Amino acid sequence: MAVLVIAEHDNTTVKDSTNKVVTAAKAMGADVDVLVAGSNAGAAAQAAAGIEGVRKVLHADGATLAKQMAEPMEALVVPLMAHYDAVLFPATTTGKNAAPRVAAKLDVMQLSGVIGVESADTFVRPIYAGNAIITVQDTQPKKVLTVQPTAFKAAAGGGSASVETIAAPSGPFKSAFVSEEMAKSDRPELTAAKRVVSGGRALGSSEEFHRVLDPLADKLGAAVGASRAAVDAGYAPNDYQVGQTGKVVAPELYVAVGISGAIQHLAGMKDSKVIVAINKDEDAPIFQVADYGLVGDYKTIVPELMDELTKAGV
Amino acid sequence: MKVLVPVKRVLDYNLKVRVKPDGSGVDLSNLKMSINPFCEIAVEEAVRMKEGGGGHAKDAATEVIAVSIGPEQAQETIRNALAIGADRGILVKADGEVEPLAVAKILKAVVEAEKPDLVILGKQAIDDDSNQVGQMLAALLDWPQATFASKIVLQNGKATVTREVDGGLQTLDVDLPAIVTTDLRLNEPRYASLPNIMKAKKKPIDVKTPADFGVDTAPRIKVLKTAEPGKRQAGIKVKSAAELVGKLKEAGII
Ligand SMILES: Cc1cc2nc3c(=O)[nH]c(=O)nc-3n(C[C@H](O)[C@H](O)[C@H](O)COP(=O)(O)OP(=O)(O)OC[C@H]3O[C@@H](n4cnc5c(N)ncnc54)[C@H](O)[C@@H]3O)c2cc1C
Ligand SMILES: Nc1ncnc2c1ncn2[C@@H]1O[C@H](COP(=O)(O)O)[C@@H](O)[C@H]1O
Asked: With an 8 Å Cβ cutoff, are A110 and B253 in contact?
């Protein structure tokens, strides 16, 4: 059998999530090809060819694919599925946007947010914000999956697949890109970071959020995340949100500062390796999942933590 | 302009689901069910298009129709939408789980009958967490889509939609008719007032079945097992930042 993996990339490099979805595809026991759809994305296609275990990279290049919007992605991927038994998208906003269009056109019921591959037709996925985990059998002749990258190890580099150029769809399409406002940051990307420092409603203002959390994140080389309450109140930008309806992260270290631990938040971080919680309420639900809990006011604890980290040579 | 809003009846978001001990599914008996929060936001936005508000001109929408596919009790979910301000409802009565693909096919048939200019859905149902019906409906109709909307501006036969994407915000123009799915920050739904709840009781709800639309709802996916998520080992409380850093060092985390 053959599986197509849709690459997440920035036209120059492929994101780590691509390597992780390749691992999920390999677990299906299949030949794995990767599609790099973009604009001037030759470098990204070359990078994808270097992922270990990839048989072939398909490279489609054109203006219509610059933002990997849903309509052109549907037009590109649906005909390719004549040659594949399954297509796997990363469960990122780009992947979630396009995958169901492909599924509907193939008359396939999609499996969303897959966290485990047991065989070529048996998969594991969370429902109810991760409060129940289902194992499902999908015997449809074609399969469409979105895969939760944090649930899989990244496939290594060192491969040397061939790159085949294919045509980009020409359109016209009924939707047009207008603009984007992307957060710029020198910090690691939230979903790929090894460490994450997250703040909640307790921080009280945008100034306070950044004053307290940015130095701690810098010290730990961590990405910064937030609860929905902090995002809604405008303390942090929307792309910081961790949770059922935000991003799912699984870093080695997750530090929750002034976050209560609502089920919707836990859905996005409870698979972190080590969780540290700082909260002044000793009964806060976050302590039920925290490996190390510190009860107290973040205003005194975070500065102490900074000092102790310095002393420890971090 | 007619706006169609699909609304799903789900377990109330404040409640934690219970997995049946024999692993055969989740136990929803005697638990409070509510309108899916993202669908409530979709209804609110459509009603603002009618009443004016949220940046929309009054009468930008002329009629708001709420549709739900589900058991008899999904009537309550539709009443909920009617109390927010939708004009009428359609219940497509189906017992048992209807998968997103079948939901999308039924909605396609409803769209073909009602001919709305805009369909606003929730981005995801908080029970199946599928995040796919809106996109599937767009594909089946060959309509453009703007998912995860945090702002919608209607103008000259187009919708300009700001979307919440992983790296920040993206703005698209979609030609109408179109599909939009809502993210949490699009608006804050109102509390329905008592008079409006009373009024909602008199608004009409049409009852149909999937067979009326020729849609087969037999599931494609077989659920083999439902399990509780792996529980985390309960951790410890540390007394000080110094102790915390010591523990993190021991654990090889820093
Ligand atoms: C459909 C839906 C989807 C949702 N999706 C998400 C999601 O993806 N992600 C998400 O995070 N939420 C989500 N939520 C919201 C979620 O239910 C909670 O409301 C939210 O997570 C609460 O954020 P919080 O913990 O920052 O705020 P709060 O619950 O208000 O907690 C603040 C915490 O800070 C502590 N505190 C206060 N002052 C101090 C101090 N000085 N020092 C130390 N601690 C202090 C308090 O003890 C409290 O525990 C969703 C909700 C709905 C309805
Ligand atoms: N049974 C249903 N009845 C009406 N609308 C639904 C139903 N299921 C899903 N939807 C719509 O599709 C959206 C996304 O659902 P899902 O793709 O299942 O996560 C929901 O927010 C609803 O707007």
From this structure: no
